[in-house]
Amino acid sequence: MANLIGVGIATLDIINSVERYPDEDAEVRAVSQRICRGGNVTNTLVVLAQLGHHCQWAGVLSDEPDGARILADLAHYQIGTALCRTIEGGKVPTSYITQNQQNGSRTIIHHRDLPEFTFRDFEQIDLASCDWLHFEGRNVADTEMMLAHVAKKSPALPCSLEIEKARPEIEVLFKYAGTLLFSKKYVSEQEDNDCPESAINFLETSHRQFPKKRMICAWGAEGAYGIDQCGVVYHSPPSPPANVIDTLGAGDTFNAAVIDSLINGQSTAEAIKNGCRIAGQKCGHIGLDFI
Ligand code: ADP
Predict the structure, then answer these.
(1) Which protein residues touch ligand 1 with a CB less than 6 Å away?
(2) Which domains does the chain have, with CATH numbers?
(3) Which tens digits make up the pLDDT trace of 82-112?
(4) Is the overall model pTM greater than 0.85, yes or no?
């Protein structure tokens, strides 16, 4: 069991399933509704907690009722929130998700009225007993200061960084983390193509730019690709469940399983295999309570 700190956000997800995507200005009835906590880092921590790790979330909460809902969910998984900053007022980031039952597409409208977790918040954290730090690639200026602070004060502390979306200057963060976890969306946009060769090309090109990094990208129903510190590329096939029921949070689950493997001293090849195994298991269940 390791002590992990995850820096990023928690959201409230309101997921309406509809028979088909509505026309503009239409009024439709949802087939079902699910309201749950989401957010990349906290999703990853929830899976890591179920894999037996001691997790703490460092992020920002609002004292409004939906903030309490998020706290209750994290408490259920024994995820510590003492490192968080709680502000008065505002609105926790909320994702309004319309899931189309015809094709599985999920259209998301996101609203937030909350400041980001800052470097000033982060520098107060005592990292002495932390075994692994995981960051969400957002709020680039402050995240860079956080990563630089770790590199200076705790250079032996392993860090992973999730790059889900292209954001201005996000590449400045790459040099700091030992493990970079890219989404298929990010890589496909960079390569202008979502074929598997794009993943391999992206990893090889990025590795030449940032040697000695371990870089990984989940590739949806086609599994995942990774390149180790020596520049060797690996592919893991997916591990599909009997029925794919819910892929929301599959990438966050994959990241958690990869981190779990790396904490346990496994290789890049083993880590992506474990990532696909556990993410595949997740796809057969609704939500993240599946281990
Ligand atoms: P996200 O869209 O949540 O960022 P991905 O779609 O890349 O993440 O999926 C992450 C991982 O989940 C994949 O690497 C794969 O192992 C697993 N996965 C996702 N979709 C499927 C699927 N349809 N069948 C089997 N495994 C899947």
Answers:
(1) 183-184, 218-221, 223-224, 238, 240, 244, 247, 250-251, 254, 276, 279-280, 283
(2) 1-140 (3.40.1190.20), 178-291 (3.40.1190.20)
(3) 999 999 988 999 999 998 888 878 899 999 8
(4) yes
